[in-house]
Amino acid sequence: MAITQTANAHWEGSLVEGKGNVSLDTSKSGSFEIDWKARAEEAGGKTSPEELIAAAHSSCYSMALSHGLTGAGTPPTSIDTKAEVKFQAGQGIIGIHLTVRANVPGLTQEAFVEAAEGAKANCPVSKALAGVENITLDAALV
């Protein structure tokens, strides 16, 4: 059964001078202010589409890695993933870097890197972001 998740954005004005907000409707987790400066200059307490993509990618990746490790008989104790989404005005998203640190008893570093690469290739958000030419990974056990 497919699940539909919903968010809404409202924007007023031009790209550079305008402002808006995005709400996470399915979870009712709140509304976040958005503007061009948060996207291309500095956040100033506001979010951007790229920050939301980073949140989606890091959480989806962690779940995919956990699933893969558990399926291979080495369930993780913990996984911490940071996603850094690089945006260049005029070009769009030019890269994503994932940093993952995990505690996986009984797993070698080499086997972990293999599992981490598999999760990078197969997590649904990674697949949705396939148009991004440069998605890199730094994976290590802790």
Gist of the model:
The protein is built from four helices and six strands, in the order βββααββααβ. It is of the alpha+beta class. A hairpin with a 3-residue loop joins strand 4 and strand 5.
Would you write up a description of this structure?
The protein is of the alpha+beta class. It has two domains: 34 residues, no CATH class; 93 residues, GMP Synthetase, Chain A, domain 3, CATH 3.30.300.20. It has four helices and six strands. A three-stranded antiparallel β-sheet has the order 1-2-3. Helix 2 crosses helix 3. The radius of gyration is 17 Å and the shape is elongated. The mean pLDDT is 93.
Strand order of the largest sheet: 1-2-3
| Gross CATH architecture of the largest domain | 2-Layer Sandwich
Helix content: 25-40%
**CATH superfamily label of the largest domain:** K homology (KH) domain
The average pLDDT value, as a whole number, equals: 93
Question: Features of this protein?
Answer:
alpha+beta, GMP Synthetase, Chain A, domain 3, 2 domains, 3-stranded antiparallel β-sheet, 3-stranded mixed β-sheet, 4 helices, elongated
Write the layout of secondary structure elements.
Elements: E1 7-12, E2 19-24, E3 30-35, H1 36-40, H2 49-71, E4 78-88, E5 92-103, H3 109-122, H4 124-128, E6 135-141
Parallel strand pairs: 5-6
Antiparallel strand pairs: 1-2, 2-3, 4-5
